[in-house]
Amino acid sequence: KIKPSEALKRFYGFVKQATEGPYGMSIRDVMDTSWEDLMGVLGETESAKAEEVMDLADFLEMI
Length: 63
Fold this sequence. Notes:
By secondary structure, the protein is mainly α. Helix content is 73%, strand content 0%.
């Protein structure tokens, strides 16, 4: 179980990430958006950062 102070610290970090990152969100945007939608936006952006460029020859070897 997480302590309330740790939960609040994580929440503030999350809001900071959403408002200062490449998402272009204000604090009001964050507060007015559902948790599921926020996770979708942040998740899509994070997974896009993690994607690697693959060589066509490597791709063809996989199939």
